[in-house]
Design brief:
globular; alpha+beta; 9-stranded antiparallel beta sheet; 12 helices
Length: 700
Amino acid sequence: MRGDVETSAGAGGIAAGTYSGYSLHAEGPEKGINLILSQPGISSSRVTRLSPTVVWALPEPGAELPPRDRLLQLLLDDNGRTIGPLRGELFWSDPRRYDAPIGIQLVGVTRDQGRQILSLLDVAAREGRALPAVSPQPIEEAFVEPERIRSILKSVCVMKHEGLLRQLGRTLRVSLEYFDVASSQLHWRLEEPGANWGTAPYDIEVVGHNTAYRMRVPALETRGGRMVTPLPRRLWKVRHRSHRRVPAPAGMMAHFHHPLWGELGGLEREVVDLSFNGLCLRGTPEDLVFPGLLLQPLELRSASGETILLRGEVRYVGGKPQDGQRLFGLQVTPRTPVDEARWVQLVSQALCPSTRGAEELLEPLWELFVDSGYFNLAGKTTEHFEELRASFLETGRHAARLPRLFCQTVWPSERGVEATLSSVRPYRHTWLVHQLAKRPGKPAVDLPPGQILRDIHVRTLEHTQSDPDFRWLVAYTESTVPLMERVHHVYAREHEASGEALVMPVRLMHVSCDEPSGLSGHGFELGPARFEEKTRLAEEIARTRPACYVDAFDLSRERLDLRDSMETWHEAGLERERQVLVARRDGVAVAALLLELGQPGTNLFRLLDVARLFPLTLEGPDAYVALLDAAREWYARRGRSAFVFLREDEDDSYAAAARLHDEPGAKPCLWMLSARLLPDFLEYVSEATVGRLTPVTPTV
């Protein structure tokens, strides 16, 4: 049903979104809320959704539908308690179905009537008869593999995440003090002064990076504030949202006016927590806020006075009635590109405070690449990259104001920059993670094992979640690097069968524009692909490559021209281009060359200046040398001295003739992960980077 679109209700303009109010679930007529209309033929209808702006109801069988051409007079009845008279307009009905609901848009609802409706809904929610119209179900999964359970609990122990022990009628704070791997025993500490453990078995819930884990365990031994339990046989994962929320910066307040009842005046409310797509406010019942209410503009003000304008839609209202407070959960989006850049910076810093954006540390970042040996990868030297230094610094300065295209994360210390990881969005739905480097040695500050690598991964990968169009995460990883194999490849291989991950061997071959093959007389006609040849290429790619590959790299026929991404980059004043060249013999295309160009300095190994070859007939490989020579000319005309040939087959027969170069012994891979898996992958990164458990002498 799309009838309940964004609507106006009284003064204040647009007030409620598509999913306004609460869905009602009554088990009997005596527990339900009824709609009473004064029109003949309808006496009472059971209300299925309600807010101060809209009411949905199921009319009685055979009832006459109300007219659409005039205001309706109606009452709401909750077991004898009535609200009204109210006025409304019928905006949705289906006379073809006897059991179809009707939707009525309420108009001119007074503040007192709104308070009565919300009070009625508050009681229904406490009794379990009402839920927000949008109430996403938590993601649940059971782990039974002992090694995965060990890995999760090891991470919880090292990271010292909090936990709760739940028993009938009480909840106790606990912590996993020690994990004895040899005996598979967990040593817990009770954090509640003067409390006792109670009677086993126990339900314990611990929190990982962005997920809660539940287990049921017996006690092996208890003494004072310590308890030992065995490793659980089953661990339940529960996640309520894709985006991690953290406490808001101290002193941050939200300012807004109620869109329905302006007489409430300007409201200022504390921001409790936030994520990339939402925040929580602390208010009161007198704010008359309900799910679906649109707050726009919603102005955030930091303690230092910086402002950010957002559009907010209330999705959740909670809190204990006895304390006189309410918590309002909102889904938010920035109003302007400037607000978006400020919002992403604010949330990123709150989510991972030990990291920074690189825009003010670009020179130290370049020094990190030198000191870490990053420039020595693939047989290169620091001198090889000097021509890209100026463009790298210039692009880095633009990155902070373009959060939908770039993320450059650094981990600063007294030594400069300890580590970095970046991401860029070169395709419509895809972010490329790249340029991972870490300084040798350790900073002066004492850190948990793996903290720096964990932090830069978290900030960079969570940044991609702020993009509403995000569908794929890709990287070109080196399988000989233990970190890549242990963290990225192992996880992706476990999910390849679902089509949501990929680990594919590739060759990243360096091609110099001033080193042509020198061969001539190849007998092929070279030129831009025609419409039907692009269609043929798209069909060949779809036949020979996984569906995730096609979608991630915009290689379907509809997106082969890369138009959307090119427009986005060009609007930002940046270079982005794609062209298809083909080799023809006797007028028939036998091979295609896909050429891409990106802003200089975006990736120091030129991964945005990349070429791919695809055969279109059996003799296609015969044209590869000629096409690569044409690629040299294409890139040289655009001011490039070199590009990367991305070889995705096992055919090495033309490498020498085409003068292609790569590092002996290197085993690069294309790594790919769907956005749906990213929250779980972030949890996995947390597990895989904790290092070893610190030996302690447990006290029981």
